[in-house]
Amino acid sequence: MKIGLAQLNYHIGNFESNTNKIIQSIRDAKQKGADLVVFAELCVCGYPARDFLEFNEFIELCNEAAQKIAAECQDIACIIGIPTHNNKPEGKDLNNSAYFIENGQVKAIVNKALLPNYDIFDEYRYFEPSTQFNCIDFKGKRIALTICEDLWNTIENPLYVTRPMDTLIEQNPDVMINIAASPFAYNHDEERIAILSDNARRYKLPLLYVNHVGAQTELIFDGGSLVFDKQGNAVDELPYFTEHTAYYTLTDTGEITFEHQTTIKPQRDSDIQQIHDGIVLGIRDYFYKSGFKQAILGLSGGIDSAVVCALAAEALGPENVMAVLLPSKFSTDHSLKDAKDLVENLGCKSEVIAIEKITNAFEEALHPQFKNLPFNIAEENIQSRSRAVLLMAMTNKFGYILLNTSNKSEVAVGYGTLYGDMCGGISVIGDVFKSQVFQLARYMNREREIIPENTIIKPPSAELRPDQKDTDSLPEYDTLDAILVQYVEHRRSSAEIIKQGFDEETVRKVLRLVNLAEHKRYQTPPILRVSPKAFGMGRRMPLVGKYLT
Amino acid sequence: MKIGLAQLNYHIGNFESNTNKIIQSIRDAKQKGADLVVFAELCVCGYPARDFLEFNEFIELCNEAAQKIAAECQDIACIIGIPTHNNKPEGKDLNNSAYFIENGQVKAIVNKALLPNYDIFDEYRYFEPSTQFNCIDFKGKRIALTICEDLWNTIENPLYVTRPMDTLIEQNPDVMINIAASPFAYNHDEERIAILSDNARRYKLPLLYVNHVGAQTELIFDGGSLVFDKQGNAVDELPYFTEHTAYYTLTDTGEITFEHQTTIKPQRDSDIQQIHDGIVLGIRDYFYKSGFKQAILGLSGGIDSAVVCALAAEALGPENVMAVLLPSKFSTDHSLKDAKDLVENLGCKSEVIAIEKITNAFEEALHPQFKNLPFNIAEENIQSRSRAVLLMAMTNKFGYILLNTSNKSEVAVGYGTLYGDMCGGISVIGDVFKSQVFQLARYMNREREIIPENTIIKPPSAELRPDQKDTDSLPEYDTLDAILVQYVEHRRSSAEIIKQGFDEETVRKVLRLVNLAEHKRYQTPPILRVSPKAFGMGRRMPLVGKYLT
């Protein structure tokens, strides 16, 4: 039996585009002589469709798409993911389903049993879990079809009380197929391979796994669809961050064979390379799927905006990136020079708009209120916010999307100005710690100097007052980031972090800053997620909570 | 048996305050000769504690609080709500539990079975549902203790596959006690009474129900704790929007008696009165629990900022409200006069800061880029954003919290400037449609004119260009709001709304505007929730989705 795995880039709610892609893949697969072609979880509507799922019309549109797809399935079968109505009177209104379609008909429906409801996942918000499990017979083979998380209930730390494959295996299947929507994080590939390999080995069955590729606002799907033999060896892996379809033959002895060269990597890509590739795809899809082409950003001469500018140039083309230099009286000459060097290295567009007259106008207008009170964070923020007003005016006039350039360390401790440098349509490096931003710059300079060396080596500064340095307010970034990894990504408490050897006062200060900044993060743009715990939908904190503050 | 119901205002993560309140109530109850005092769901840590629950230390702090509370329970019993570790190896890490504490010991633990995971609720993110149900014997009575949603699985449209009381009733209990954390919406009181009454009638048992009161950022808990006789009649209802403790005697014949006058209302408060009272509590608690006292807002002379200003004055005292008039060259004389009249009516503080020189400075700075392109939304937004920069500067200098004044109609269709009038620490009327804002103004003027009559009767305008009216861009608010109620609150699709008799073109335009504004709403402040479907955590939409756009 010849099986195609179609790893495609869907668009939430864009039924026309998704359906056309699926139909085109079915036609290609038929030409290639495939018996079955497999698409990803909820491919018909895109993932995550969130509360669109609560609209009956949206579910009807999914159903109409499935009918169009079914009509194409003559002399070939396909598996698609689709939300369907729960037929039982009790429970949630929907199931997260897979249709097995053959000869124009839905021949079998499989419903997901294990519904992820952690981090960015909200599946129990919409779906009723399945409690019945049946294999599908097709061309003399018996298929154990499951949906994503259904294979993820690990033996060591089971998050769920059931395991669908434990029932399905009793029906003596020949192969496992799993359709997924499993978003990228820099450590996700190893975990995914390990868990799926465990399943193949435990149930002694070959396993074919199809993932989404492409970004949906903050969530990036990396693809990396996988094929395992029944010993649990990964025998093939589809490419990362790009659409791809590949074909495999399931032999009568239960072996998986294929004609192309395996793309299994002898060595995994580095975290930084994956983060880089993921962000480039994230920017590109955010713009494409929003119907925009051109980005704008403020370029300070510092490393964060430099890296964001270079990533945007790679994603959209330098001709579609407008870098605006917005010097104040506190901007240093080297900052302006570093920014100009970057613009030249990239070949992107640029403008210079000085903000001093604007900040003067604000300070004059506020003179009766501020009188002779000393310069403080109020005046610092006026600079940052004046820049945001200028960038947003350019955006409104010319149809750009403003890129936010805050890094994860800043976002964590609230080192940024709300409605100032925290503005933007999408946060590009808001899930990348400052120490990783440096690594990203070095990685992007691997062939030639794109990010000016001086931008990388100079001490970070917001340049909102004379001789300001980030370290005036914050610990050194290496220390800060190490503490933040423990608190934010590993969710360790202060006592545990201090026990690891960090200075107690520093730990308490950092955790306090993180918790006090919740109200700022609440109003910031969606952040491209590249880590297992990004700020945004995956981390939900009370604002008025009094814990570690 | 004498039972106290303690309806208290907790603060998320503020263990010291919560524990002290609970202990004080236990002491009071003992003095009153009570046998048992009942507190609300998850009272120890506050509700919703969200991802604080993922920190071990947070759960330990809950446990420490419970130990302190238990130590107070000599010669009296209490019921408290607390998150506890799930002892089974499978499933989520926590249970949403109730402790029955007697003589310093936890005598029984009840775990919640039905975990709400819709709208603003995310309980399945943290908690494993219970599957075992046992009554608690105390002083010759058998208590069927359940937690909130456990009684909400309606017969007509069951959201869950089990019903804990169906098991508990087989053990022949004498009374039902339900501890809850059920947030306010203007239609929630009737629904709550109906569902709880149904339970009392169905199981033929008296029912005592304790709710939270007080606001946690956007969520307002209205109290309204209830007592039903075994015929399902509501015999008492605790007051709304205020802390209160009341005592009841469960007689040997299973009747509920009490010595105070019942506060059951012969007629429910109007929706607008409830919204008013809820918002006042919402503002007050947001400031108090954030450790702030003073509010600032921009006062335009229009009805939205006028109503917000008056609500803030009521919540915080007029001496703690700073109204800033920020006229531009497009501001009309009557707007300035209306704003000044309001300030005088309220007795709040005010300042006038003209923005023309500032907007001129922006336009001059942008002249090389904008050249002679016509005045459009870019220049309109510069005005709105210049005001925001001024208000935030005042906030940074003097320690105010900026109040957002957008109404729900504007928020829905994106009729507002991101980083401009959409700024603020908390959105006061973002869940109140424009047509309800007029009703609110009339309600607030019920005894004397607070909101100037001219503010109420003049046609709404943003005054960002000459002779601008809201109706230049939007349908009349009565039509707009009626469509929005169907789409946002009732989640009807376009076809259903058109079928109700609305003009097709208008419906499609409105739904398109709503869906295109998701990216703006993503970055707006938390909105005090007064309806069953507010923008914010309770409504989760994709940003790059292509559905009805």
UniProtKB/TrEMBL annotation, chains A, B:
Keywords: ATP-binding, Ligase, NAD, Nucleotide-binding. It comes from the Bacteria. It catalyses: deamido-NAD(+) + L-glutamine + ATP + H2O = L-glutamate + AMP + diphosphate + NAD(+) + H(+). GO terms for molecular function: NAD+ synthase (glutamine-hydrolyzing) activity. The keyword Transmembrane does not apply. Residues 1-258 form the CN hydrolase domain. PROSITE patterns: CN_HYDROLASE, NITRIL_CHT_1. The keyword Coiled coil does not apply. Pfam families: CN_hydrolase, NAD_synthase. ATP binds at residues 298-305, 405. L-glutamine binds at residues 118, 182. InterPro entries: C-N_Hydrolase (IPR003010), C-N_Hydrolase_sf (IPR036526), Gln-dep_NAD_synthase (IPR014445), NAD/GMP_synthase (IPR022310), NAD_synthase (IPR003694), Nitrilase/CN_hydratase_CS (IPR000132), Rossmann-like_a/b/a_fold (IPR014729). Deamido-NAD(+) binds at residues 381, 410, 520. Its EC number is 6.3.5.1. Pathway: Cofactor biosynthesis; NAD(+) biosynthesis; NAD(+) from deamido-NAD(+) (L-Gln route): step 1/1. The active site is at 41 (proton acceptor), 41 (proton acceptor), 112 (for glutaminase activity), 148 (nucleophile). Catalyzes the ATP-dependent amidation of deamido-NAD to form NAD. Uses L-glutamine as a nitrogen source. Belongs to the NAD synthetase family. This is Glutamine-dependent NAD(+) synthetase. It comes from Mucilaginibacter litoreus.
